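FAQ: What does the model actually see?

It sees only this:
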Amino acid sequence: CLVVCGWFVLVFHTNLPALDLAALAEISATLWRGLDRWRVGDLVLVGWIATSAYLLGGRFLNLLKVPLGPGPERRWLSVTLGISLLTLALFILAAVRMLYAMPVYGLLVLPFVLDAGKILSRIARLRVLRPSLSLPPILSLRSLARVFVIALGIFCLGVALLVALAPELEFDPLFSHLAAAQQFARHHSLKPLLDVPQAMMPRHIVLLYAMGLLLKPGVPKLINYLFGLLVCWGVCAWATRRFSRDSGLVAGVIMASS
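And it is asked to produce this:
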């Protein structure tokens, strides 16, 4: 394998002698500009926030010994509880004037460090698992209806994602929520704004927006999109447990389309 790799590098460099470190740096810069244009980094950061919240909330649920079995509802509760705990930690950082990017990154890394053993064991189990994909033997109207509902949900969430990736234009976020979050992120503390009551009574969303602004300017709107996903997920999980799987799917899609 090493011989083949060495031969490939030699032939590649011989045929393209201009491919030096400067050319590689230019290719890398172009690639990063393309990823930034498509907001891939923002999506990764929001996924990181959600995963950290899930790990933190799940650990807290285990400490409280909440009588809720494993399933989508417990995972949903783990994410939402973890977001509340992250908000509390952000409030403490802002209160002691330490709301900087590095402490926020440390806050997001901490759940992964605490659950490193569990994460590695799950990765090891995934290597053993084999996907068992099976198609229904008979294509019924019920299965077609289920496919239509799933496609409608994906379409609605996709449109909402496109809106979330666009610049913010609405009045409330620009002149209240984002204004207060920008004040917190700029001063790295709970700095009030006389014209914005949310800055004097910091809400969960304002603190999360401040965290997003410290990570990357486009993250706050995607955090709002994450809240929409959690609402749809919660409705789907509750309806599934209360009625049936199809009822949960329909309820989640109705919430997504609204």
